[in-house]
Amino acid sequence: MKITHLSDLTPPSLERTWLTAPHPTLPILATCSTDKTVRIYSLSNFTLLSTITGGHKRSVRTAAWKPHSSGESVLATGSFDATVGIWRRWDNYGQKDGVVPQAETSDAESAEDCEEEEEWRFAVLLDGHDSEVKSVSWSASGMLLATCSRDKSIWIWEDLDDGDNNFETVAVMQEHSGDVKCVSWHPSEECLASGSYDDSIRIWREDLDDWGQVACIKGHEGTVWFLEWEGVDNMPASSSSEASAEIEKTQWRDQRSLSGPRLLSCSDDKTVRLWRRQPKETNQGALSSASTGIPSIIRPMGSDEVWEEDALLPHAHELAVYAVAWSKRSGLVASTGADGRIALYQERFVQTSADPDAMDTSEVRTEWVLVAVKDGAHGIYEINHVAWAKRADGEAGEEEEILVSTADDGSVKVWTVG
Fold first, then answer.
1. What is the CATH number of domain 3-237+261-288+298-348+373-417?
2. What is the pTM for the complete model shown?
């Protein structure tokens, strides 16, 4: 497997670029820069469509697109000025003022046309953090926005979706003892994960209208820089015959159904780790009375979910790992960081029999394999972020998946994997 350079996004920022956020449906992406701007690029021709300015007074550190925004694009941005901005723009392929355009256009044409026809509107500024905002993340429903900061706090905001751009503060969590570097919502549940300078990962859920910590995961020996959830339909690669592969997949789904999607993390300790929630059935009886067998109603001390390390991915980095990305399509994991290297990993089923078609009925196992490394992907510069996106067009067709990396010199590069 190779990582091949396809194109740069042009023109680049002249200052450090922190993160790239691909749009969930349109062939466009947003980049965040130290020059206080957000740039919107086309994934059709990899050129700049528009530059969003005027909302923030300092470096824009993070951005995330709201899912399920019918007829418009909504972008949340977080800045070192301690504020979160919400930007909106109607998409010309959607409904506006009750009118649906009659002409049908491709996604690529829609993206370019709507950029030309209407500018982005700075809808609202969310003010509450006391220091730099490091990460923003929308819940799967698009109703909740999580933000985190150097002030050690995590805020959850609800988009009231009332037409007046009103957001309500739902919760403020302050259990981390250090700078909170990242927040990431579960792909299907209202469950939030956070990573911090205090080397921990924390899991948050709502209980009786009050948000609280349900798990504190300790395993990294350095700052947790980034988190990424597994896709709900992810499946490891198989080298078995078609019939055996189906058995593997069925066993895998059965084993993992109670645990749910796993959580990927990367750290200043140069490692990429994978975490899995223990099914509650396996740890519920811990507080039961041995003499009576009656379960205790006392809430467990500390956390009420148990998360364990599922895998330590193969060593691939010599310096801090700043970002990881888990493809929802191929299942490949990409990582990058201070050493300027991009690494790719693949999870594979482990054959437990000499005969690949003679499937063992015991628990199926997997292993992670380092399948590609690209050194010096941005020359001498550190790479701050990596993300998977869909290519808008090209010889391989619209469904081709690309990798996008973002670096200290302001450059954003597009890669093909194969």
1. 2.130.10.10
2. 0.86
